[in-house]
Amino acid sequence: METGRVFHETPPRLGRPPRAATGHALLKATREILALKGVHGLTVEGVAARSGVAKTTIYRRWRSKEDLALAALLEMTQQEPPPTGQQGSTRTALIAYLGPLIENLNSKVYGRVVRGLISDLAVDRELARGFRERVLARRVTDLQGLLQRGIERRQLRADLDTELVIDLLLGPIYYRLLMSGEPLTPAFINRLVRAVMAYAR
Q1: d(Cα 12, Cα 126) in Å, to the nearest integer?
Q2: I want to staple 97 with a disulfide (CB 3.0 to 4.6 A). Which of 65, 83, 87, 175 is the partner?
């Protein structure tokens, strides 16, 4: 029998990501606070109190309240249906894709999060990079796929500048949301896509 050996329980690894249930609880609490107070009324302390999760657990995953808001925004974005373009015209596919986007932007939480985050993007480089890579990049990839299928089917011209077309589609939507205050409606999306298609054919 061996003596003099001391056995210790292996400690958990530092930085281990929280369980999925914990992450969902934190993002749910974040969304609820955002709906009530917006990004500027969001605090890590408030999320901890509402979710029952320790602040230290939150900070292991997100460095700031802005990162929490971005994570909540990303989760809502991921719940949107994927773009459909296998059948029908490119015009129909674009309208079907942009419809859920404006529905989200018109919603109390999603729209408030976007408005609240935009003011911080200019001064927080990490936040701006996360917004571009995790939210906008998905929009660009989805639209790029729809436009490329349109080119392959000869519904759009072969030399189309797809980067410019994506700017023409998304720019007016965010302009209305953040600057002009004009409504984002299905009728507006129909007009926008019709105008862009006139250029793209």
Answers
A1: 29
A2: 83
Over 2-68, what HEC string results?
CCCCCCCCCCCCCCCCCCHHHHHHHHHHHHHHHHHHCHHHCCHHHHHHHHCCCHHHHHHHCCCHHHH
pLDDT confidence of 70, banded at 50, 70, 90? confident
Report pLDDT for 9: 36
Match domain 20-72 to its CATH number in 1.20.1540.10, 3.40.190.10, 1.10.10.60, 1.10.240.10: 1.10.10.60
Two tokens at 117? 């985050």
**Residue 123: its pLDDT value, please?**
80
- Tell me: the pLDDT tens digits for 9-57? 334 334 444 466 788 899 989 988 888 887 888 899 999 999 999 999 9
- Domain range list for the chain: 20-72, 80-200
